[in-house]
């Protein structure tokens, strides 16, 4: 088996298992959310339109050329551009996860959040895995203006939060992107749990020390 074929098979299987894990734990529902991964030749594998992340089939994932043209597999999701604009700006990223996970979406709907960096540095792992989280203004699903708005923020941050929609998170590997998305969701949950309480987030010095 060629190295590329073996890499492709492994990534396809990994996308299926990450999708099932996210679905089984309620981090995604219905046919919402999508996962993608970039191969060493620049091609991108992505979960297709109308697919439940809980029951993906490795051979049916949508495959795109490095230029973003659909090559084969099922019909692509109309959110494919969200992934492509992350890869375009984050050339070292090997995977992107986008979910409509409940707590992250809830935070994205709150009035008075800081659009430059939505969540405070509540824990060290949030700082290390997510870092900063800019808010992308609301656009209807599939609106191409959303791509430009995401791309503008993706230059500085590998995680962005779409207002009234959900997170888009890039990572060096698929596991990195998965873990960062989960850390974001859990931190959003903590943030909501802490509502109305006096809190003590990490200090700027403590945050800086994490790199
Ligand atoms: Zn979405």
Automatic annotation (TrEMBL):
PANTHER family cross-referenced by the UniProt entry: 3-OXO-TETRONATE 4-PHOSPHATE DECARBOXYLASE-RELATED (PTHR22789:SF0), FUCULOSE PHOSPHATE ALDOLASE (PTHR22789)
The similarity annotation says: Belongs to the aldolase class II family. AraD/FucA subfamily.
Protein name in UniProt:
3-oxo-tetronate 4-phosphate decarboxylase
The record's InterPro entries line, in alphabetical order, gives:
Aldolase_class_II_sugar_metab, Aldolase_II/adducin_N, Aldolase_II/adducin_N_sf, OtnC
Cofactor requirements of the protein: Zn(2+)
Q: Which reaction does it catalyse?
A: 3-dehydro-4-O-phospho-D-erythronate + H(+) = dihydroxyacetone phosphate + CO2; 3-dehydro-4-O-phospho-L-erythronate + H(+) = dihydroxyacetone phosphate + CO2
Q: Name one GO molecular function term.
A: aldehyde-lyase activity
For this record, an example GO cellular component is: cytosol
Say if the entry is tagged with keyword Isomerase: no
Q: What is its EC number?
A: 4.1.1.104
- Class of the enzyme per the UniProt entry, highest EC level: lyase
- Keywords, comma-separated and alphabetical: Carbohydrate metabolism, Lyase, Metal-binding, Zinc
Which organism's genome codes for this protein?
Phyllobacterium phragmitis
Q: Which domain of life is it from?
A: Bacteria
Q: Where is the Class II aldolase/adducin N-terminal domain?
A: 13-192
State any GO BP term from the record. Answer: pentose catabolic process
Q: Which SMART domains match?
A: Aldolase_II
State the function annotated in the UniProt record. Answer: Catalyzes the decarboxylation of 3-oxo-tetronate 4-phosphate to dihydroxyacetone phosphate (DHAP) and CO(2).
Q: Name one Pfam family in it.
A: Aldolase_II
């Amino acid at each position: 088996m060629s190295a590329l074929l073996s890499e492709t098979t492994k990534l396809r299987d990994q996308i299926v298992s990450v999708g099932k894990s996210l679905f089984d734990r309620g981090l995604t529902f219905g046919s919402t959310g999508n996962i993608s991964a970039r191969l060493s030749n620049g091609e991108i594998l992505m979960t297709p339109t109308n697919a439940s992340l809980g029951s993906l089939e490795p051979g049916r994932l949508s495959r795109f050329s490095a230029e973003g043209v659909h090559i084969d597999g099922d019909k692509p999701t109309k959110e494919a551009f969200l992934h492509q604009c992350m890869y375009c700006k984050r050339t070292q990223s090997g995977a992107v996860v986008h979910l409509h996970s409940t707590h992250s979406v809830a935070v994205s709907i709150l009035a008075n959040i800081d659009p430059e960096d939505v969540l405070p540095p509540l824990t060290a792992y949030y700082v290390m895995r997510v870092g900063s989280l800019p808010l992308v203004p609301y656009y209807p699903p599939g609106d191409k203006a959303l791509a430009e708005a995401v791309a503008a923020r993706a230059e500085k941050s590998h995680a962005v939060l779409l207002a009234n929609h959900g997170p888009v998170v890039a990572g060096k590997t698929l596991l990195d992107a998965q873990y960062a998305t989960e850390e974001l969701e859990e931190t959003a949950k903590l943030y909501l749990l802490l509502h109305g309480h006096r809190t003590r987030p990490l200090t700027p010095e403590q945050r800086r020390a994490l790199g």
